[in-house]
Amino acid sequence: MIKKHLVTCSVILVSVVILKLFVCSTTERKSAMKSTRFVGYLAARTEVNEGYNFADESMPVANKSVNRKIKVSLWRHSYNRVGSVVLHRKASEIFPIIEPILKVYGIPEDFKYIPLVESGLKSGTSPKGAAGWWQFMPQTARDYGLKVNSSKDERLNLRKSTIAACKYLRDLYGELNNNWTLAAAAYNGGSPRVRHAINRQNRGNYYLMHLNRETASYVYKLIAMKEVIKKPTEYGYHNVYVSYPQPAELLAVN
To answer: What phi, psi does 157 have (nearest 5°)?
Structure first.
């Protein structure tokens, strides 16, 4: 009887130990999966595209820091993070209007992604006072021919604000050694800040500069936006073109 009781206790003890080992193993596995989810994404993206560029200036992806930054930016712009096709819908609405204007002013087509980065996932006026598709500050908007007052705000007019943005970008390009990547960075951080960051070590290469966090990530955001719009399925966006408006509907966009 005692022997039978001991056997029963042993079986119960072994079962408890096995159960604890299983629970610990499952918890550790979930934790590992969670911590390696982003790393796994980066590894998966490594083979997709090594030819990233902005305005025909290639990104030096051989640089480890640059390589990681673009992968982080791509991940942040993927469907898993955005969770909507709003960026693609907006692109279909505004690109047919923006592209011809950029061409007339001699601005590289890649600059059409600025409005998506600036206001693609948000709208209204920023805490600093910037507004519209191109997120112009009031005085900068006025400097480039837009009316901004209590009764009218042309920053909200897509065509007029795009023309103003083209004029501004041309000035930035001229100020920054005729370099479009630096002009894009200056659109975010201002030309004085970008000029100050140019030195012998980086020789005017944006990707090697030490800039404030927002400006340092800005061109990466533009390139990531370009990638997800041009190759939606590679970044988790599916059936994004189903909701695209018909050409006639584009006429209603200001």
So the answer is: -90, 115
